[in-house]
Amino acid sequence: MTTFPTSLPRPHTHPLRGGARLNWGILAPGDIAKDFVHAIHTHTDQRAVAVAGRSLQRAQAFAERNCIPRAYADHRQLVDDPAVDIIYIAAPHSEHKRLALLAISAGKHVLIEKPIALTAAEGREIRDAARFAGVFAMEGMWSRYIPQTDVMLQLKADGVLGELSLVLADFGTKGSTDPAGRIYNPDLGGGSLLDLGIYPLWFSHLWLGTPTEITAIGSLTETGVDQQTAIVLGYGGIAQAVLSTNLLAFTPARASISGSDARIEVNPWFVVPAGFDLVAPGKGDVRLSFGNDTGLEFRDGIAWEAAAVAQHVADGLTDSPLHPLALAIDVMQTMDVIRSQVGTLR
Hints:
The structure is a single chain. By secondary structure, this protein is of the alpha/beta class. It contains nine helices and 14 strands. The strands form two sheets. The protein has an eight-stranded mixed β-sheet, covered by helices on one side. The N and C termini lie far apart (47 Å).
């Protein structure tokens, strides 16, 4: 058994200011794009310099609200803008592949909001196009870049947890039930799995790798998207992950990693900068706590991802060393199997 530590390591994160800087183009204006721009403008040296939407009026309104100098009604105009270094794709899931390939064909780097695409096959198309063009491409799994994730992985690397046996994670929330909206519309890649379930799946892959067994049960909305799914992943009889996601309730959004020597309990919501407890074996009365004292909360955590991506590009990388395309595609391959079992994979 590894000795239980007396203190926690310091996080290794990219500095939010003073490093590499990129000019960002935004495709397309919406709530996630709004939070992305707010995070980078408030907490980093990154700047959004152009936005494109379904109409010029919508793009201009977004630009005015978010201090972006240029707005376009045409996606091609944005990707061809010579002042834009990288495109952040925040459109509905169904548009991720098309817009990523459009940007890559124009020689632009891309950060694609999770999930990278609707399927693993689409993810591979994006990967291959980016490799051919020699540009940087990454899925926007911003939770990988927040400080608590780095500290937790340091504990794993140091052997503090021992042999891992169980990962638990859930993420469920209620939102608009508009059948034409992106969450309930199958044509837009709606459903709980692609929008929320991607986080628990990524979390289990981060800690345990690729599962050897995948079992899922779920139910569908009247529009045909998944509304609730429970997932069990097996890892050759050595470890398991038990995950859940739904659109019906606000769940605790907690996660934990249990090993033979210690466990980590991540504070709600586990995908945002919220901290965690390292718990000693036994009844759990010995704890070390890692808190969020950064002042960045909820989606402001995107700032670490954006600053890191800028540095990756400056370093000449075409893939993220922390969240590589291979991992994003591997998660989507697991997602494909789950969606097939639930009945939503087209």
